[in-house]
C-alpha cells in the first residue's frame, strides 16, 4: 500500500528523467490523470496514454527532452502538500514559481488546475506540487 500516491507519481517521473528514459509507466488514478493532462498542456511532457485494461490501469508518459542538448524539460518536481502536513492557499496567496517560468498544480473545488488558472478563476485550494 502506498501512503502518498502523488509523491510516488512525482518520484517515478523524476527518476525516469534523471535516468534518461523516454517512457515511464505509472499506476493510474483520477488525480494522477488530471496532473498528467496539466503537464501535457503546459509542455512538460511529450505525450501520454491512459491504459485501462487492468483493474487499476496505468498511465504511460513520454518524457520530453530538448532537441539539441538532450536536456530534460522537467528540471524539478517538488511535492508541497503532504499527507502529514497539508498546504492550502487562497486565491490571493497562490505562489508564483520562478517568476512565472514554473507552475504550481492546485487541487481546487473546481478541479485540478495550475496556479495561474486558479488565480484567474479566483479560487484557492491545496497546493499539490511545483514543476519547473
Characterise this structure.
The protein starts with a helix and ends with a strand. It is globular. Helix content is 26%, strand content 30%. Strand 6 and strand 7 (111-114) form a beta hairpin. The strands form two sheets. Strands 4, 5, 6, 7 and 8 form a five-stranded antiparallel beta sheet that branches. The chain has a three-stranded antiparallel beta sheet with strand order 1-3-2, with helices on one face. By secondary structure, the protein is α+β, with helices and mostly antiparallel strands. It is built from three helices and eight strands.
Q: Secondary-structure map with pairings?
A:
Elements: H1 5-19, E1 23-27, H2 30-41, E2 45-51, E3 58-63, E4 77-79, E5 88-89, E6 103-108, E7 111-114, H3 115-121, E8 125-131
Antiparallel strand pairs: 1-3, 2-3, 4-8, 5-8, 6-7, 6-8
Note the main sheet.
5 strands, antiparallel
How many β-strand runs?
8
What coarse outline follows from CA principal-axis ratios? globular
Helix and strand run:
HEHEEEEEEHE
Please identify the structural class as seen in this structure: alpha+beta
Mean pLDDT: 96
Q: Proportion of β residues?
A: 25-35%
| Portion in helices | 25-40%
Radius of gyration: 15 Å
Count of DSSP H/I helices? 3
Unreliable stretches covering 5 or more consecutive residues: none
**Distance linking N and C termini:** 29 Å
